[in-house]
Every structure is written in structure tokens, then in C-alpha cells.
Amino acid sequence: MKPNKNIWSKTELQVYILLLCANADDQESEKEINMIKLKTDQETFEMIYQEFSNDTEDERLDKIEVAIHLHEYSMKEIADFRREMYEIFFSDCNFSLMEKNLDRILDNIIY
Q1: Residue 91 CB: number of other CB atoms within 10 A?
Q2: Most Cβ neighbours (<10 Å): which of 8, 9, 23, 102?
Q3: Which tens digits make up the pLDDT trace of 44-94?
Q4: What single DSSP character describes residue 51?
């Protein structure tokens, strides 16, 4: 795993995970990207998107696992975050097998 240069803020981690959700079926739609952009400012989005684009799938999951444990999330924060993930997954009105598998993996990491 490439080391994370900086410790992500909760917002940066959120954007990274939502990008992973959007990319789960190997197709990031414009609608999904726009939904994610609404969660943060343009500069943060571009920085996280650049890092996300340069990482392999294994590096992405490793980085998320490390970063998620550096922050303490309340149950409400986790519930809100899971809702946002499902909004991305269901933005195309289809919950594909690849998205279901990623959801299961992220569920194990987050909890």
C-alpha cells in the first residue's frame, strides 16, 4: 500500500469512499460524480479524485480501512454515511452484484 501522505479529514474520507461506491460497477456516471461534488468544495474533490484515480482497488480498500479507524464515528454519523453510500449505489436505479459485494466489504470495514 502506498502511504497516505496526509491523514484525511472525515469529509475527505467520505468523498474517497463515495468515489469507490460510484466506481463499483466500473462506471462513474456524471450524476454520481455531481452528487459527490455536492459534499465538498472543488479543490478537495479534485485532490481526492486524483489520489483515487492513481490507486489500485486493493490500495483503495487498505487506505479506507486505515483512515476509518483513525476517526471516531457516532452511530448517527455512520447511519448518515451509509445512507449517502446507498444514494450513490441506487442513483442509476440498479444495485448490481459488484455494488452489493462492495457494500458488504465496506460494511465489514466501517463496523
Answers
A1: 15
A2: 8
A3: 999 999 999 999 999 999 999 999 989 888 999 999 999 999 999 999 888
A4: H
